[in-house]
Fold these 2 entries.
Entry 1:
Amino acid sequence: MIQQVENPIIEVHDLSVSYEKKPVLWDVDLSLPSGKLIGIIGPNGAGKSTLLKSIMGLLPLSSGYINILDKPLKEVRDKISYVPQRESVDWDFPTSVFDVVMMGRYGQLGLLKRPKKADKEIVMDSLSKVGMEAFKDRQISQLSGGQQQRVFLARALAQQAEIYFMDEPFAGVDAATEKAIVELLRQMSAEKKTVIVVHHDLQSVARYFDWIILLNMRLVASGPIENAFTPELLQETYGGKLTLLTEISELIQKNRFPNRE
Amino acid sequence: MVGDAISHAVLPGIVIAFLWSGSRDSVTMLIGAGILGILTTFLIEFFTNKGKLQSDASIGVTFTWLFALGVILISAFTGQVDLDQECVLYGEIAYVPLDTIVLASGLDIGPSAIYLLGTVFILVIAFIILGFNQLKITTFDPQYAISLGISATLWNYLLMSFVSFTTVASFESVGAILVVAFLIAPAATAYLLTQDLKKMIILSCIIGILSAIGGHFLALSINGSIAGAMASVAGVLFGIAFVYVRITSRKVAKITSAEPINA
């Protein structure tokens, strides 16, 4: 079930990516609608993060191309924003919360340019959106996992982009942070931003996303949640993992027609 | 540790530059060493990224191999080369004031090391001021930097080239061991004392200057090796900072553990 859309915000065409000659993504061809909350779902090692990184131009492609807003990545870099996995950086780096969020403005600043007052206001505004303004002078080494994730989100917000890519923003965060992040995602979606999230937890998929991409090296499905989040497609995605399959069918019963608050 | 690697790996560059030009002119040697320094960085990055080696393994393989090559070159052409490993490795800072530049008019304008290292100093400061944001973001989160359109590879190579040139220019006058000591010890001490990058840079400069002055007087008083005394003082300063931070952080821990009782 791969549903293509008219006027896609992102178009991935015949994408294959491999590490050391071993393919990780194989012939992925999809198009995504704008203004949606999109989840990338699949088992460990399915290439979820790889897909995200390929779209962001962080990995060399074996074949295929990607267009964002009908243009190659280089021309639209200022319209996209990235939230990497929390573990990807050294949190003992000597810097403060404010400075990390200010990095979101660096794309607009050139050599030697110092942040202006407007940049500082954007940074404070982004911090307040994730409820971290009280922590602005805190050293990043003194943050909890959930707070680290909020700082990363604030940094992405400070870019004031159109499209947001988030790599497992819910991994290892507390319940309060998860709730805060979900609210933020809904708010962004209401402002017609497109948010693409690599997600791990099947339990919450139906509650969080409008559109899902099911991935296991190959693209299994890409479509609106009501069409793509089905037992057959999930079985196809998660393949022979039997213990998981029973869990999945239970989940689907529970989440079949989710209420969206 | 890349600084350590570079300081050893540039040896073949120095020897080849000498063999090729036949002079011990410092600019020629600096160019030879600088090229090898960048090559070292490039090889280390290459082994780490493409060869999937751990970074300490790729550093170890690269610099020992290049250093060994340098030693062979020196021993094979030992008759023609007025260079010895001892001098390259340990340097002799006491001779620096003797190697002066004398103008055609006969005027002595002071040690050549001052002009060479002074130039490097100004270049490094300019580089840090100009590229502060870029250096910071590419070090902290290279993938995010790339997503903003800031090339992490470019800035990493620029940084490593500067480390390479600074190392080469300095060890020509003070020897590799002092260079490595001063690349790492003052910065490590500053890292213990502050968590702000700008303060850390300034503080490590101050600690470096204190180590140099302290080491100089220590060497005078015991009539020992100047380089050894300076590196020792840098180590002692690190030790003091370490003990100081341990004691103060224990105090903080006591206060926080008492808080719930008061509340």
Entry 2:
Amino acid sequence: MKSFKLGAAAFSIAFAGQAALAETEITFWHAMGGQLGETVNEVAAGFNASQDEYKITPVFKGSYEETLTAGIAAFRAGEQPNIIQVFDAGAATVIGAQGATIPVQDLLADNGIDFDINDYIAGVRYFYADADGKMIGMPFNSSTPIMYYNVQALEKAGVTPPATWEEFANVTAPALKEAGYIPLSQSHLPWIFTENFFSRHNLQFASSNNGYDSNDTQIMINNPAIKAHFSALVDWKEQGLFEWYGTGWGDNAKPFEDGNVAMWLGSSGSFGGLLAKDLGFDFSATMLPYWEGVTTEPTQTFIGGAALFAMSGKSAEENKAAAEFFSYLTSSDTQYFWHQATGYVPITEAAYEAAKADGHYEKFPAAEVGIQQLSLPAGEFTRGYRMGFYVQIRDVMNREYGRILTGETDVESGFATIEAESNKLLERFAKTQG
Amino acid sequence: MKRAGFTSVWLPVALLLPQLSIIAIFFYWPAGWAVQSSFYLQDPFGFGSTFVGFENYTDLTANSEYMRIAWFTVVFTVLVTFFSLSIALLLAVKADKVIRGAKSYRTLLMWVYAVAPPVAGFMGIMLFHQHTGPMTDFFKALGWDYKILVDYNSTATAFIIVSVWKQIPVNFIFFLSGLQSIPRAVREAAMIDNRSGVRRFWDITFPLLAPTGFFLLIINITYALFDTFGIIDTLVKGEPGNNPMTLVYKVYMDGFRGNDLGGSSAQSVILMVLVLVLTVFQFRLIERRIHYS
């Protein structure tokens, strides 16, 4: 009993001691598991060590979808975190709910932190912005799909990485097949072969300026260029030039890591993970190929990954702490560290310059491919897309693409189904905003 | 005969109150919310919402994919129920005859019961793995180009096998105790009447097991409809793509992943009605026709 009282006294003293420092504590919910989660913790620890007024606590909440759902439930219960990480497909949901978050641009301005959207690299600038170009979410882990290749496999086949799909079909893939490899796999059909297919060729993806200008949006997926691409995929799969291992990301990456598949389309953010694995071969990367038949001036791709949003309903001190954390996060040192450790692209020009000056890309040329691709010339439709219930739209795409690739349906009816179901979902989403 | 009873109304009410309040808080209240939100399309954060009447329901019936999922759920439920009941019955009948080492034998058969559905799912992932799964090798040896997560039927087969495997022990325990409660005299009389074991089983044992069997039938139908969620989620790794799924998994996909509260509420109301029908069916039809001794 005595020791219990002593313990309680010690506890209350310790508690009072902590309170005496008047440290403002904020929470940050994220979806970065494993190695990436460790890196997030390092960034947070760095911020906590850099000053003694604020303390941020990162909490891993599961997948992107689980994190967003947890954030929504918490918001409705008045228990929301200060900062939440929301992925690209959830952007319309969180940005649509005006009042759930404080636009990051306002948050920084209100707390006296300089903000110039032009400090950010072109590809990431406007994806998480509203119709007027005001930045709502702070791009955090930004990636873009690129093509990784097995250097030895390409040498053995006597080919170079293809720049266009025509080159892939006529030269690269047949040679790789001859050399005993499965030439190609990819890990995310909606992201790599749909969203970024549209941006790479500067095609309109949805009405109302890809959905940015209004909720009354229709998807424009039933486009002959992308249908031709999927018809080509079906042919390539039959000829043994392409393989599809299901919807799972890892199931398609594994055969590349095992050395069976020669080229793999993944995320620029996969770089850190591939480097950490001891692959039995050298790997490098190149930009996402394009169809010369569709365009001779390929444009930049969209960013994938996620952004950080400051949730509303918090005290001024906590908002100030969140703003300071964003400021720390976008400093070129933090960005360069994050870029090096994970492979996600640095989001500011300054951080990119720092990485160049440090010779990072001489050591790892593949690490620069993502940012180069995001810095390609922009087009009218390369800023991004904003569609509600997009998680379900991606589910519909995955389902129909799977059916197309397993011969259960044909390209024409698959795309007609995606178009009809997506437009129905968009119509329903518009009503949730009413 | 004098009926024992309470003298006042308040005592039984007070005794029932804890139970009733738990039911009210954890069942009626959320169920009421689900019914209400099934008539709205609302912003997940709770800002905007539009009253849409029965639109959430008509959208579902108009969606061919939802109908396809409903059909899969029916087929899945029938197959899982049939195989888990019949295999468990076979095992129970055989275990009932074992005399030496009966206890350890029975314990081994019940063991699987302790495996949680997601763990069963993980075992399924390993057994049916595209490249390294022994079941994949087995099916390939039979000439089936088995590819889980790529091919619809391959994934469906894995769902069914893992779900059946997981449910057999429960059924086994009930069937075994049911068999052991059949009076010895009845069995011995049957033995004199008929030498054929198969005939004795169908004429005597099976009808006497019927009450247990029908109880298990309902338990197994609800298991296949609802409790297989963990197995399905683990096997498809949260990304069903072109793979089959059950109605309850669709509720999760639309509600928890997609934040479509109205649509997923309508789906859960449909499932509630389904359970209600099952319950009425159980009490009204089955309980009347089965003779409990």
